[in-house]
Amino acid sequence: MTKHILILPGDGIGPEITAEALKVLECVKARFGLAVEFDQALVGGSAIDAHGVPLPDETLDKARGADAILLGAVGGPKWDSLDMAIRPEKGLLGLRSGLQLFGNLRPAILYPQLAAASTLKPEVVSGLDILIVRELTGGIYFGQPRGVRTLENGERQGYNTYVYSESEIRRIGKVAFEAARKRGGKLCSVDKANVLEVTVLWREIMQEMAKDYPDVELSHMYVDNAAMQLVRAPKQFDVMVTGNMFGDILSDAAAMLTGSIGMLPSASLDENGKGMYEPCHGSAPDIAGQGIANPLATILSAAMMLRYSLAENEAADAIEAAVSRVLDQGLRTADIQSEGCQRVSTREMGDAVVAALA
Ligand SMILES: NC(=O)C1=CN([C@@H]2O[C@H](COP(=O)(O)OP(=O)(O)OC[C@H]3O[C@@H](n4cnc5c(N)ncnc54)[C@H](O)[C@@H]3O)[C@@H](O)[C@H]2O)C=CC1
Ligand SMILES: CC(C)CC(=O)C(=O)O
Ligand SMILES: [Mg+2]
């Protein structure tokens, strides 16, 4: 049966990088005879410009009907960033919550060819392969009440609510424990249980769940220490599980260990394995339109999509091997450039991956 993939290019570098991922997907479709069809829709600023809203009903309907979604990135200085992303009913967060994509997998893997691009010394980072499991549809990004209010003394006050229910913690815990079981058997739960009650509950539930996973070694770490440990000795981690905001921040930090945020893919999954796949970075307005963005995080997200939502493991493996081959050839976009390597554009990088696949 034909599978339907919805591509949401978004804004800024989004259209540039998704175009390269689509070329790669078309190539594996032909090579492996995949029964997939592609459709596109607007989200973010491009949707505001066309329809006045960041998440048009048509886009949400198409997303609901698709077997998997590949997203570039949304946002930019032209649009109100809260409209774009943060208000739960809108934009990217509306898409994530509307589809119940609570399980965000963000693998931070250092390709050995990029050791020189990492911000850490080779001996600290070589062989790095960690998985950050981030809760994606709850926590402070969604908690109510939220807003800006005027106090009696006339001063304005901004407020948000950090809330997690037990069931939300359990379902992300399950994703993390299962992932740890399949990988190195180590899970570090990151919280701020010395200050925030919500994360005291988070820690308690992780401890309870650990009884069902005797093969997984569970540890706990406060988020401030976790940020420090990530840049001090990242290989101590195997799987990390944390809430929405902490995971957002820690994964950007982890990105630099791999050389660039342009290398970090992600999968956002619902309970049945339906998913949206996107690079961890944003729309990079500072480099949009210049043809210099790194498309590899999006191409690697497409590989995750084939593996997790379409069960096309061979095609996914082929894409990942092609990315590795291109790096072997010394081809680098600006963000991962190092001495002796050949600088290529976004399009040239996409073309090189396609050539490596052939
Ligand atoms: N998933 C999404 O759609 C996300 C959207 N955003 C939105 O993106 C806009 C920009 O946000 P920023 O905080 O600047 O984060 P950003 O991730 O877009 O950019 C941060 C830095 O990384 C660089 N960068 C990002 N992706 C790159 C790539 N593929 N190749 C080379 N360099 C890359 C950018 O040039 C910039 O210097 C904002 O409107 C923000 O709300 C931010 C994060 C995620
Ligand atoms: C709207 C933001 C939460 C997007 C973001 O920074 C992310 O998902 O990494
Ligand atoms: Mg982020």
TrEMBL record:
One of its GO terms (cellular component) is cytosol. One of its GO terms (biological process) is L-leucine biosynthetic process. Residues 4-353 form the Isopropylmalate dehydrogenase-like domain. Its EC number is 1.1.1.85. It is found in: Cytoplasm. NAD(+) binds at residues 76-89, 282-294. Binds 1 Mg(2+) or Mn(2+) ion per subunit. PANTHER family: 3-ISOPROPYLMALATE DEHYDROGENASE (PTHR42979:SF1). This is 3-isopropylmalate dehydrogenase.
